Amino acid sequence: MRDDPTVVALVLSARDGDGEAWSQIVERYAPLVWGICQRYRLGRLDADDVGQNVWLSLFQHLHTIREPAALPGWLARTTGNECLRVLTLRVRQHNELAGEVESGVDGGYDIVEEELERAEQQMVLRQAFNQLQRRCQALLGLLFHEARPPYAQISRQLRMKVGSIGPTRERCLAELRRTPAMAAFISRHREAGNGGELHAWRMVDR
C-alpha cells in the first residue's frame, strides 16, 4: 500500500491544484478515517469533527509530506491524534471517561496499524470485485449483502438453480482471488513475508 504508484500520482496532482485528485484522495481514504474514529468509539458528531479537522490538516500540510506514498500512514496517525484530542476534551468535561482515554492512548498505534490494514483490504476487495464478470458480481453482491436474501429469492432473481448457487459461489471466489488486484496484493504480502495467500483467503472466505 505504501508503494502504490496511484497514491503518489494523486498526491502530486493534488499538490498542483488538481481538484479531481483531491476528491479521489478523500473518497479513497474516508473509510480509513471513519474506521479509526469507530475504533476509538467516537459518536457521529465527534467523528465528523475529527474528519473535518483531518482533511483540513491534510489540505494545509499536503506540500510538506516528504514521501507521497506515506500518505495513508500520515492520515492514520493524524486521525488517531485527533481522536485522542476529542477524548481528552471529553475527559476534562466528564471525569468518568478518564479510563477510556487512558486505554486509547496505550493502544492508539495498534489501532492505527490495524485500520491501515483494514483500509487496504477494503480497497483491494473493491478493486478485485470490479474486475469480476457481471454474473459473479451479482451473485457475490447478494450473498455478502448485510441483509442476505434467501437462496430461493437469489435463484429467482439471477435465474439459476438453488443447487448451483453454492458451487457458483466457490468458482466466483476463486476468480476473485485470481483478479489482477488480488494477485498484486498477494504478491506484495508474499515479498514482505506476511503470508499473502492467507491474507487473501481470510478477506474473501467470509
List the helices and strands and how they pair.
Elements (H helix, E strand, L loop, with lengths): L4 H11 L3 H21 L4 H18 L9 H23 L4 H33 L3 H10 L7 H8 L3 H17 L1 H12 L4 H9 L2
Describe this structure in a few short sentences.
This protein is mainly α and 206 residues long. The protein is 79% helix and 0% strand.
Q: How far apart are the first and last residues' alpha carbons, in Å? A: 23 Å
CATH class of the domain at 5-123: Mainly Alpha
Q: What's the shape?
A: globular
Q: DSSP strand (E) fraction? A: under 5%
| Overall helicity | over 70%
Q: Give the biggest beta sheet.
A: none
The CATH homologous superfamily of the domain at 5-123: RNA polymerase sigma factor, region 2, helix turn helix motif
Mean pLDDT: 79
Q: How many helices in DSSP terms?
A: 10
Description of the molecule:
- There is one protein chain.
- By secondary structure, the protein is mostly helical.
- It has a domain at 5-123: Orthogonal Bundle (Rna Polymerase Sigma Factor, Chain: A).
- Helix content is 79%, strand content 0%.
- The protein is built from ten helices and no strands.
- It starts with a helix and ends with a helix.
- The model is unreliable at 96-107 (pLDDT under 50).
